[in-house]
Amino acid sequence: MGADDGFLYALKPDGSQRWAFGTLDVIKSSPVIGPDGTVYVGSQDGNLYAVVSSSFGLANTPWPMFRHDPRRTGNRQTKIPAGIAPAASSLLFFIAQLAKSLQKEAAFRG
After folding, report:
1. Which of 13, 46, 53, 85 has the fewest other C-beta atoms within 10 Å?
2. Could you tell me the end-to-end alpha-carbon distance of the chain, in angstroms, rounded to an integer?
3. Degrees to nearest 5, angle at CA 99 with 11 and 41
4. What is the pLDDT of residues 49-76, one digit of tens each?
5. What distance in Å separates the CA atoms of residue 61 and residue 20, rounded to the nearest whole number?
6. Is the CB of residue 39 less than 8 Å from the CB of residue 33?
7. Does this model's pTM top 0.90?
8. Do 40 and 91 form a contact (C-beta atoms < 8 A)?
């Protein structure tokens, strides 16, 4: 999870800290995990970070990602279609959202 202190934190199942990675500004976006375990997160410093982790994709749980599924329905009954890689779909969604956010910021700064 990202934090206002500019760090990306990975937590263990018991809630204790597994590791932390520092950026140059606050993190407001939700990180995503690629199929190879790389964690991607954008920071308010304008950078997209790719952090190598020992994870390999999403957890095998009923709610594996932010808002449940790649479409972000927030509905636990939504089925993820066969052949869709949730981590890859989340990564593409995240990159598109980050690009939009950076465009808005650049326009704001003029």
Report:
1. 13
2. 31
3. 10
4. 989 887 666 666 666 666 666 667 777 7
5. 23
6. yes
7. no
8. yes
